[in-house]
């Protein structure tokens, strides 16, 4: 039986892979976008007015940004050290796609990659035209110069698919990448947590972002338990890590939601998270659903969570930005 030796939850947003001097580059886009916050849709100006009493202007100085970036980077390096120390043979990485390899023409709720190779090639000029404003400078944080190919783990991936079907999850199966880039949720893990020296891995994708087929938080929790069962029944002596990539609340930060989520994770009691309601988990905040399968697996396994840090990185007085979280289970 394979042994699960490590769980990791990490944020992966562009603010983590860019200098603080360009953290404000997406604010012009924030100002013209409609944002999901507190079960509603808000313009930038409405958010500024609604959050006027929170003192967010003091959160968006260069001094604060530099301090919070330093904390984030220290946590990422610590997670990378923990990963290296665990001597992991295989990693199962749960993340979401943001129209990087899928399109609206075909976007599965859950999918598992069972191919031999995971490709992470640099963007073509045509592909660069699709990149949202302010994101292009972050791409080297997810794709190494010259691109890369990473080893998959078909044997474990096929077991995960088979167990999911047995547990009545209708997962999509892919033996090659639909597009040649690795989504940034995985690129961040390969580059930063695995330090560009990745072990074989299984890509598990969750459609957190795009209607109409996002799985619910409760469904994601149960899916994690199915993944756990597949790993535990795999006739192998491999040491396995489960890694969640994404979150926490963004593109509008909501510290109350983050605290509820992290408390549920720490207490291994997710009913308060389920009670938040599906409408909370929209836009970037939906990436918390990447953490939920790992949390569900770890709770059933009995491994204790270690919440290393929670760092809300605001970029505007509207509360836009990305709340960063870093957790591990040993």
UniProtKB/TrEMBL annotation:
CDD domains: 3MGA_Dioxygenase
TM regions (residue ranges): none
Residue ranges constituting the Extradiol ring-cleavage dioxygenase class III enzyme subunit B domain according to the UniProt record: 75-300
InterPro entries reported for this sequence: 3MGA_Dioxygenase, Xdiol_dOase_suB
Pfam families with a match to the protein in the record: LigB (PF02900)
Protein name: Protocatechuate 3,4-dioxygenase
Lineage of the species this protein comes from: Bacteria, Pseudomonadati, Pseudomonadota, Alphaproteobacteria, Sphingomonadales
């Amino acid at each position: 039986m394979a042994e699960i030796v490590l769980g990791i939850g990490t944020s992966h947003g562009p603010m983590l892979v860019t200098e603080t001097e360009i953290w404000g580059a997406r604010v012009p886009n924030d100002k013209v976008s409609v944002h999901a916050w507190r079960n509603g849709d808000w313009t930038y100006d409405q958010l500024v007015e609604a959050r006027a009493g929170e003192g967010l202007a003091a959160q968006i100085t260069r001094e604060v940004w530099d301090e919070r970036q330093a904390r984030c980077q220290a946590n990422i390096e610590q997670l990378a050290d923990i990963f290296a120390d665990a001597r992991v043979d295989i990693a199962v990485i749960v993340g979401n796609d943001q129209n990087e390899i899928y399109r609206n023409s075909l976007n599965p709720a859950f999918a598992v990659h069972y191919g031999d190779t995971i490709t992470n090639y640099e963007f073509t000029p045509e592909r660069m035209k699709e990149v949202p404003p302010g994101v292009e400078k972050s791409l080297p944080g997810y794709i190494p110069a010259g691109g890369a190919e990473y080893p998959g783990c078909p044997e474990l991936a096929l077991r995960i698919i088979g167990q999911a079907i047995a547990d009545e999850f209708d997962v999509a199966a892919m033996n090659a990448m639909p597009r040649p880039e690795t989504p940034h949720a995985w690129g961040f893990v390969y580059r930063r947590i695995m330090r560009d020296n990745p072990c074989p891995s299984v890509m598990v994708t969750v459609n957190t972002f795009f209607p109409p087929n996002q799985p619910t938080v409760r469904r994601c929790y149960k899916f994690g338990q199915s993944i756990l069962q597949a790993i535990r029944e795999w006739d192998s002596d491999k040491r396995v890590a489960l890694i969640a990539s994404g979150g926490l609340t963004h593109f509008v930060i909501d510290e109350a939601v983050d605290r509820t989520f992290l408390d549920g994770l720490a207490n291994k009691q997710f009913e308060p998270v389920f009670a938040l309601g599906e409408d909370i988990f929209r836009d970037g905040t939906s990436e918390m659903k990447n953490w939920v399968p790992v949390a569900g697996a770890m709770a059933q396994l009995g491994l204790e969570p270690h919440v290393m840090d929670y760092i809300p990185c605001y970029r505007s007085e509207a509360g836009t930005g990305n709340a960063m979280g870093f957790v591990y289970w040993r």
